[in-house]
Structures are given as structure tokens and as C-alpha cells.
Amino acid sequence: MAVPVEEAIAALSTFSLEDEQPEVQGPGMWVSTERGATDSPIEYSDVSAYRLSLSEDTKALNQLNTLTQEGKEMASVLYTYRSCVKALPQLPDSMKQSQADLYLETYQVLDLEMSRLREIQRWQASASSKLAADMQRFSRPERRINGPTVSHLWSMLKLLDVLVQLDHLKNAKASIPNDFSWYKRTFTQVSGQWQDTDSMREELDDLQIFLSTRWAILLNLHVEMFRVNNVEDILQVLIVFVVESLELDFALLFPERHILLRVLPVLVVLVTSSEKDSESLYKRVKINRLINIFKNDVVIPAFPDLHLSPAAILKELSTYFPKFSSQTRLLTLPAPHELPPREAQEYPSN
User: Tell me: the pLDDT tens digits for 58-69?
Assistant: First the structure.
């Protein structure tokens, strides 16, 4: 039978820890630089031995961490994607009779590349659904008192960050729509040879919507997240955690700081677009604190040689979330290309 965490802590407080007692084992000298304090090298497999009521939380933590690792691999696939169309052969006029064979071979080549994009599409749908379900779990009345731990907050933020990176990479890759247009054209030419193509056409249309819609992943996450009410509470908890971590320098390493800066504008847009009164957020976090954070970091890394701007994200997402468009003070923040020349010149030295 699981023991409540409060009772376990109370029992530990009764133990006598006198000074100058012999240590059975000396202090460990091994230092790991690969994992932070919010990670578990053994994936919390030792929790069951302590009979604590944490099995549900640790299972969710492992699931989020696994999804984050898978998402990083998806981001690498998307980042290294290169256009195949320019490498495809073109037939001279004297060989036009072989055009049908060329279309079929071109379709087979491009289908391999499109299958990678379809895998990313399926993965983001599954990850968004599981992240939203985990957030909704902390919206239940019995979980609001004992909210998520710091480790759980970081796991949520890291998975959200991976989704933001995937969306930004998809928007930035101009070669993907070019390859897809050729893929759709060759499919139209070769599909007449097959019997049942309705399911293939439906899958093709879904992929086209996914690739052509900017911020499609975040829009899907918004739909999954607000299937139930009261998810705004956990979003506000995440925003408060991010703001305090940035202001108090809790995130010591630059990768952690960049995670917080990438997800903060997305969290603000999501919580403001909810059906409940979004002004409750600005009672907990004054809007000037958000403005100062966004002003101090005008440009942040998104991937090795790709960057994004929190102010630009706010402005672009405002077209998809009408309720957020009323937040004029946040929307008037200058994007990098809108900075005055002198201020832009002085930005790196600051």
C-alpha cells in the first residue's frame, strides 16, 4: 500500500541524526555533467521500493522525457532535410514516351522523403495529446493543492520547447513545400494506375494542411489542451515558474535559459486565448515583468543556425488567437527588424 508523501516526511523527521556518527559510505566523488538535477539516471525505477504515492507522477515524467528525446530526433530529421527535386532527372523531348516511367520513379523517391514528414506529423499529434493530458491531470481539484514538482515542470517545458522548435523549423524550411508540390503532382500522374486511392488522397490532403499551415503544431496543441476546462491554472503555474526562473537566474546554463525564453511567449498566448478571464494571469505576473524579459532578449537561438524572436512570435500568433490581439502592450514590442538602427547596433554589446 502506498504511503502518502506527507506521512513519509513526518516519519523521517522523527529520526535522530546526531553529529559525529560514523558514515557507512563516504561521500561520492563522481560528478556527472550530462544530467541535471531534474533528471533521473534510472528513470525513477526506485520509487516503488519506498512505497510512496508517486507512481503516477513518475510514470508521467518518464513518458514526457521519452517524448522529448524522440522530439529532438524529429527536429534533427527536419533540420537536415534537403530538397530532392533539383537532383531529379529531366527527360529530353526525344524521350517523352518514357514520361510515365519517370513519374513513377520520381514518386517512389519523393514518397520516401514524405514518409519522414508524415512520421513527424503523427508524432507531434501524439505528443501534443499526451502533454495536454498531463497538464489536465493537474487541473483536477485534488491535484491543485499538491501541484507538479520542479522536475515535472521542467519536463513539461522541455517537451513544449521541442514542439515549438519543430514548428519553427517547419516554417523555415522552404524546400519542404517545393518537394511536396512535386510529390503531389507525380501522385496525380501515377494514381490512375491504382485501384483504391481514396485513403491515400485523404492522407495527402492532411499532410498538405500540416505543411502549409504556419504554427500548425501549436494550433493542434491548443485544441488538445482546451478540450477540458481549468487547464489555465497549470498554464499560469508554468508562466510564474518561467518568469521567476529567468528573473532570479535559476537557469544557470544557456540551453536551459533558452528553453524558458522560447516557451514563454507561447505560454502567454495560450493562457490569454482561453475562455476564462485571462486578466487573472496579469494579477499574478505583472505585464511589465514580461515586457522586460522580452526586451532583454530580442533574439534567441532556435536551432544551431536558426534564430527566433519572442516579440515576432507574439505578433504572428496574434493572427491565429483573436483574444490575444487585444494585448496591445505586448504586441507593440519591436521585432529585431523593427529596432532603430542605433539600438540594433548597440544590442550585441549589451
Answer: 888 999 999 999
